[in-house]
Amino acid sequence: MKKTNWLLLVLALVLSMFLAACSGGSDDTSNSTDDAETEDTSSEDDAAAGDSEQVLNITDSAEIPTMDASLATDAVAFQWLGSTTDGLYRLGENAQPEPGIAKDHEVSEDGLTWTFNLREDAVWSNGDPVTANDFVFAWQRAVNPDTGSEYGPYMMGGIIKNAQAIVDGEVPVEELGVKAEDDHTLVVELEKPVPYFESLTTFGTFLPMNQAFVEEHGDQYALEADTLLSNGPFVLTEWNHGEGWTLEKNEDYWDAENVKLEKINVKVVKETSTAVNLYDTGEIDRAGLSAEFVDQYRTSDDFVIDEEPTLFYLKMNQENEVLANVNARKAIQMVIDRQAMVDVILNNGSIPSAGHIPQNFTKHPETEEDFRELNGDLIETNVEKAQELWAKAKEELGQDEIELGYLGGDTEVALNMDAYIKDQLEQLEGLTVKVQSVPFKERLARDEAMDYDIQNSGWGPDYIDPNTFLNMFVTDGGNNKTGYSSEEYDGLIEKANTELAQKPVERFETFLEAEKMLIQEDAVLAPLYQRAKARLWKPYVKGVIAQPMGPDFTYKYAYIEGK
Amino acid sequence: MTRYIIQRLIYMVITMFLIATLTFFLMKFLPGTPLSAADKLSEEQQAVVLEKYGLNDPVPVQYFNYMTNLVQGDLGISFQFDNREVTTIIMERIGPSMQLGVQAMFIGTIIGILLGLTSAIYHNGMLDYSSTFLAVLGQSIPSFVFAGLLQFFIGVKLGWLPVALWEGWEYSILPTISLAIFPIAIAARFMRTEMLEVMGSDYIVTARAKGVNKFGVVFKHGFRNALIPLITVLGPLAVGLMTGTLVIENIFAVPGIGEQFVKAINMNDFPIIMGTTLLIAFLFIFIILVIDLLYGVIDPRIRLAEGE
Amino acid sequence: MDNQKPSKDLFVPVETKETEIDKISRPSLSFWQDSFIRLRKNIGAMIGLAVLVVLALLAAFGPYMTEYGQYEQDLSRAKMPPKVEGLGWLGMDGMLSDVQSADTVEQAKTKAMMRFNNQEEYITTEVLNDGSNGEAAEVKATYDVYAAKNMDENFWFGTDGLGRDQWTRTWMGTRVSLYIAFLAAAIDMLIGVAYGGISAYYGGRVDNYMQRFIEILVGIPNLVLIILMILILEPGIMSITIALAISGWISMARIVRGQILKLKNQEFVLASRTLGAKDSRILQKHLIPNTLGLIIINTMFSIPSAIFFEAFLSFIGLGLPTPMASLGTLIDAGFDSLQIYPHILLFPAIIISLIMIAFNVLADGLRDAFDPKMRE
């Protein structure tokens, strides 16, 4: 017995040796990758003598959830879909659509029929030509209830003819208002004139798909690098899900001559400090900065602030008795010192917002004045006035002590900011704020169920038009969820999207009026700030365009110089 | 012995079955569906999505389907990564975590045992105090603070090792060291305590009196006896390390399972939560079985099984 | 070996009177008295105990020693460095400094000034490297934050990102962490020891079922449990308490079981049993005291695990709701500014380490004191 026992022990030891040997084994393989790396650096040295090596090394904060354009819902997915696939148009400089697969288009007089002329030299990475049918297939797939797409119905419903009816299962998918007249002519019929449709076609959900390829791979489509097709500037060549992915230049791209970057290496890095450390050691060419790091790197030559048209604000649930009172809402709007908040807590170039349209987003069609400048600050910070309004509200409500729930995010910045806002709100006499910090998805779920009193929420545009921000708050709007319902406001938005659809100036002015009503008169939201992002960019990276919507960046024209 | 092992294996299956059942119904209590933005979908579409995940059936049917698939090794598809199989996702992520865990346990146990032995042999001497101090320190500093410091000083300032990422064996050194601190501390402390106790017992005193030298006694008699509590603690700890630690994985950007698990929890991705739970549970139960068997090997006086 | 035989003269019988045979030369001490005497002699353990008492007192009274509340914010005084009169030499002088490098001294100086918002009257610069030797020029700027912000009061531990007094928050956080520490220890002692002891002592079927139950508990990750708790209750101290209560004792139960399995077949137990001792007596008088060393050590390990578990929960957003402070949340919040405002992390980290070290040293002392074999 004793002997066998010892044998067992020896066996256990051998097993652990084996495990050690296993890690030793990976040691060997890593040595080979090591060699490859040294080769890389040597070629890099060679390249430095002449031209810089055209490789961009960056990080992303999450892995790609899906590369299926119909199923994509988040920024990471849209970023890499946008880099590998060209839609009808793509976002170029200053967020202006530039030709992608479409060379140009004509719009019928009533604004309902759009005819796109597609280029003939565009091919998929398997050699198939990109045809009008690829768009028809992709768009039908996006609205087909069987696909289970979330963005398809949202982006196309009410815009492309019959889209909503198909989503509701009332008519067959084939009835969607998009037809391939021939291989290179795409005709789209709309439900109503949509002035921003060109901008809309750059969005990920409108990207084409190669029908034969998608059907061949079925369930497995877009799950791995080899079940994906590209027709854009880059091809996804390697995809190690949790770790990172590699894009290489697509030599068959119709505009390949304008693509200088040979390779983009993306690594998944979640911690800001890790990314900054990687940046400092030269492993990556870009790092996002949190408030603390901004203090440290503000004086650096690499420091860049990218403004975004993304707004953050407090949503107030009008089903709550207190928040149904307009004076109470106005008091909340006025009591928060937003300047100090962006300066100290965010510290990344974000600016206080005082409306529900970001600055530098849309301009008056004639005078070219910025929307934000025209409407000015719709709210001010004024604690005394807030107290007065709050006292009035309490009187109207007949309550003295009020407790409100506050739903916020669970990131470090969100926790800090919510603690601050709680403190600011509690300046209102007799108000107690209870903060609940939940993950993003949980917050969306509670928003959907209107299970909150006050909520710290944000919104980025889906297309370049005031409508993307303002139509949220029409009665029963999918993203309203505040209980706000005003016939007058509904009327303004409706008017802007129907009878004024082809009168840009009046339409713009209607939106100005609507925003005033939303923020100033009805105090539906308490605006907080317009987000900016502070980043470090290696000075040798040139030509990357930051985008206000869809993909965060356009890498098509990026190049490395002087590394 | 064989009968005992077979008996335990049967219990193992039953336990796994109970855990699977329990987690399944716990998940049913949690709110949340695969729909990330349900407001954007019509009723019809929601139904289609729910159908895809088999969530339209009554709960008992779902349970039956889940268990049947589970037996065939199919854990379903993830909510957050469309159409990707949970089994594939877990397999992709478990590798780095396992490697880090095994390396950290290996280093941690060896260094820890050595520190503990040193302490015990030179009881109340300088070496004892310094190694105890090291162990206490290792256990007192939060691992992420330690990891952050290692990364900054060794990675950035000195440039000796890669700062983060996962591209080869040398990338695993810093995370391994950060992870190993805790097992080192635990092993050292337990080893010291047990060795001191064992060294005081009669048979050791006898052996010493008979002229066996200090080190001989330590290795021949003391060591083996001190192993019992050590493996009891280190076993489950090893499972904990191998199934990933979110903090270390995040700081060193390691594509491991710990980070995936927490994200799944944040995203209400129930198939991944369940899959990972079952994997962790399996490893725990397996390790506990191994430990129970080792008890008998290490100390023949221990009798576990009934009637033996 | 040629041992010399000792001469018989060395052995002289002690003269004892008949009446003194039964006399006990030392006072009779109970187990606890004896242990306590030995504990008192252990200097390390007494220091550990003293540190814990001081920390507990500071946790109790520290927050009242300044005029700032733990939630009192003021963004104009955010991230103030610590300042204590007379402790300037320790770096607690209320100054921030930063080294900037550039091609020339002038550029470096401009950068250094810019780093502190160009408030020249409060900045002193010092040239570390004038760049003449081909290296980059380096200028160190020191910025008197308290003077610049015209602050009269001192923040002993500085302030955090929202201008809250770190001294107050650190001690409030210590309260939470100490509570969790004692809770964890109590759970371990009560549930863990009893469960492990019973399971191993009775063995057989009882052991089998009790261990399978543990396996089920262990199999369900803590995180899943805590999420359930949060759904039923609200995130906060209560849900952490319950999650710890459900799963915190398992490792202790397994260790006690392992040890008792080892002990229960040994001769002294057998002897006691043969003499007719009851189960409860054998457990209490023989098995538990012989396991005590391990129990204490393991308790000391579950304390840091529990404190770190709370910190981990804060890290993933399931811990204490903001703006409540625990040492875990404070360390977590300070982690991001580790490189630039280290004081936000430093003080909570030092205190958490002090708590751990004190518990450990005390535990060592207790182990030695309770060990029946070490009895003199």
TrEMBL record, chain A:
<dbReference type="InterPro" id="IPR000914">
    <property type="entry name" value="SBP_5_dom"/>
</dbReference>
<dbReference type="GO" id="GO:0030288">
    <property type="term" value="C:outer membrane-bounded periplasmic space"/>
</dbReference>
<protein>
    <recommendedName>
        <fullName>Periplasmic oligopeptide-binding protein OppA</fullName>
    </recommendedName>
</protein>
<feature type="signal peptide">
    <location>
        <begin position="1"/>
        <end position="23"/>
    </location>
</feature>
<keyword id="KW-0732">Signal</keyword>
<dbReference type="InterPro" id="IPR039424">
    <property type="entry name" value="SBP_5"/>
</dbReference>
<dbReference type="GO" id="GO:1904680">
    <property type="term" value="F:peptide transmembrane transporter activity"/>
</dbReference>
<feature type="domain" description="Solute-binding protein family 5">
    <location>
        <begin position="96"/>
        <end position="480"/>
    </location>
</feature>
<dbReference type="GO" id="GO:0015833">
    <property type="term" value="P:peptide transport"/>
</dbReference>
<keyword id="KW-0653">Protein transport</keyword>
<comment type="similarity">
    <text>Belongs to the bacterial solute-binding protein 5 family.</text>
</comment>
<dbReference type="GO" id="GO:0043190">
    <property type="term" value="C:ATP-binding cassette (ABC) transporter complex"/>
</dbReference>
<dbReference type="GO" id="GO:0015031">
    <property type="term" value="P:protein transport"/>
</dbReference>
<dbReference type="InterPro" id="IPR030678">
    <property type="entry name" value="Peptide/Ni-bd"/>
</dbReference>
<keyword id="KW-0564">Palmitate</keyword>
Automatic annotation (TrEMBL), chain B:
<dbReference type="InterPro" id="IPR000515">
    <property type="entry name" value="MetI-like"/>
</dbReference>
<keyword id="KW-1133">Transmembrane helix</keyword>
<feature type="transmembrane region" description="Helical">
    <location>
        <begin position="227"/>
        <end position="252"/>
    </location>
</feature>
<keyword id="KW-0812">Transmembrane</keyword>
<keyword id="KW-0472">Membrane</keyword>
<feature type="transmembrane region" description="Helical">
    <location>
        <begin position="133"/>
        <end position="153"/>
    </location>
</feature>
<dbReference type="GO" id="GO:0005886">
    <property type="term" value="C:plasma membrane"/>
</dbReference>
<keyword id="KW-1003">Cell membrane</keyword>
<feature type="transmembrane region" description="Helical">
    <location>
        <begin position="272"/>
        <end position="295"/>
    </location>
</feature>
<dbReference type="InterPro" id="IPR045621">
    <property type="entry name" value="BPD_transp_1_N"/>
</dbReference>
<dbReference type="Pfam" id="PF19300">
    <property type="entry name" value="BPD_transp_1_N"/>
</dbReference>
<dbReference type="GO" id="GO:0055085">
    <property type="term" value="P:transmembrane transport"/>
</dbReference>
<protein>
    <submittedName>
        <fullName>Stage 0 sporulation protein KB</fullName>
    </submittedName>
</protein>
<comment type="similarity">
    <text>Belongs to the binding-protein-dependent transport system permease family.</text>
</comment>
<feature type="transmembrane region" description="Helical">
    <location>
        <begin position="100"/>
        <end position="121"/>
    </location>
</feature>
Automatic annotation (TrEMBL), chain C:
<dbReference type="InterPro" id="IPR035906">
    <property type="entry name" value="MetI-like_sf"/>
</dbReference>
<comment type="similarity">
    <text>Belongs to the binding-protein-dependent transport system permease family. OppBC subfamily.</text>
</comment>
<keyword id="KW-0472">Membrane</keyword>
<dbReference type="InterPro" id="IPR000515">
    <property type="entry name" value="MetI-like"/>
</dbReference>
<keyword id="KW-1133">Transmembrane helix</keyword>
<keyword id="KW-0571">Peptide transport</keyword>
<keyword id="KW-0653">Protein transport</keyword>
<feature type="transmembrane region" description="Helical">
    <location>
        <begin position="213"/>
        <end position="231"/>
    </location>
</feature>
<dbReference type="InterPro" id="IPR025966">
    <property type="entry name" value="OppC_N"/>
</dbReference>
<dbReference type="Pfam" id="PF12911">
    <property type="entry name" value="OppC_N"/>
</dbReference>
<dbReference type="GO" id="GO:0005886">
    <property type="term" value="C:plasma membrane"/>
</dbReference>
<feature type="transmembrane region" description="Helical">
    <location>
        <begin position="237"/>
        <end position="256"/>
    </location>
</feature>
<dbReference type="Pfam" id="PF00528">
    <property type="entry name" value="BPD_transp_1"/>
</dbReference>
<dbReference type="GO" id="GO:0015833">
    <property type="term" value="P:peptide transport"/>
</dbReference>
<keyword id="KW-1003">Cell membrane</keyword>
